[in-house]
Amino acid sequence: MARYDLSTRIGRFKAGWDYIWQDHGFLRVRFMNAHWLGPDLVRTNQPSPRQLAHWQRQGIRTVINLRGSDRDEAWFALEKDACERLGLTLISAPLDSRDPPQRERIHRARDLFRTIEYPALIHCKSGADRAGMMAVFYRHFHLGEPMSEAIGQLSKQYLHHREGLTGVLDYTLEKYLNDVEPTGVSFIDWVDSDAYDPKAIRAEFKAGWWGTLLTEKLLRRE
């Protein structure tokens, strides 16, 4: 049985309450961390139903949720309900913020950008880490931007902090730029090769203690 029954007044109230307080929605009432990445895609933090309605009025047709849909949580119940009411296509394509992206998830991102209906919106919880990595993939695969430029989507401008555990995302891309790109191998070919080993990359990466304190304890990034 679903945890949130949005067909009842009390169920919708409970979902809204949990969204605001348990998912820290109060921090996102006025601040969406929204940035257009090109003519047809915007990155944001977790949108509320009201914010989804705003984006629908701006022409958005597809919403890509990078948090996943396997958890019975208020934010997803509200997002799914809002997208259905607004006629938006909701796609769940989870990414990790503290591990290098798995090969199949990189391919999934590339395929999504080839097939979705635009304009589209991508989001995670804060719009900083997973949204940043997906933005890198969009600008590299969809816009054809070199990885050396696309990596700029992971920056403090978007509230991403590479000094903590989420810095493994930067480390992964920089490993390609420093060690592989000079040999003439494309990013996707590297990912498809045996040389791409997410577990080994994760083991090599060392986060700073203060950065970890910032992202894990103070900011409580997901």
Could you give the topology of this structure?
Blueprint: H1 9-21, E1 35-36, E2 41-44, H2 49-57, E3 62-65, H3 74-86, E4 89-92, H4 103-115, E5 120-123, H5 130-142, H6 147-150, H7 168-180, H8 187-192, H9 198-204, H10 209-218
Parallel strand pairs: 2-5, 3-4, 3-5
Antiparallel strand pairs: 1-2
Helix pairs in contact: 1-3, 2-3, 4-5
Helical content (DSSP H or I, runs of 4+): 40-55%
Distance between the termini: 25 Å
Q: Could you report the average pLDDT, rounded to the nearest whole number?
A: 92
Provide the CATH architecture: Alpha-Beta Complex
Number of helical runs?
10
Rg, alpha carbons: 18 Å
The largest pleated sheet is described as: 5 strands, mixed
CATH superfamily: Protein tyrosine phosphatase superfamily
The structural class is alpha/beta
Description:
It contains 10 helices and 5 strands, in the order αββαβαβαβαααααα. It is an alpha/beta fold and 222 residues long. It has one domain: Alpha-Beta Complex (Protein-Tyrosine Phosphatase, Chain A). It has a 5-stranded mixed sheet, sandwiched between helices. Helix 2 packs parallel to helix 3 and helix 4 packs across helix 5. The longest helix is centred in the first third of the chain and has 13 residues. The radius of gyration is 18 Å and the shape is globular. The model has no long low-confidence stretch (mean pLDDT 92).
Summary of the model, kept short:
With 222 residues, this protein is an alpha/beta fold. It is built from 10 helices and 5 strands. It has a 5-stranded mixed sheet with strand order 1-2-5-3-4, with helices on both faces.
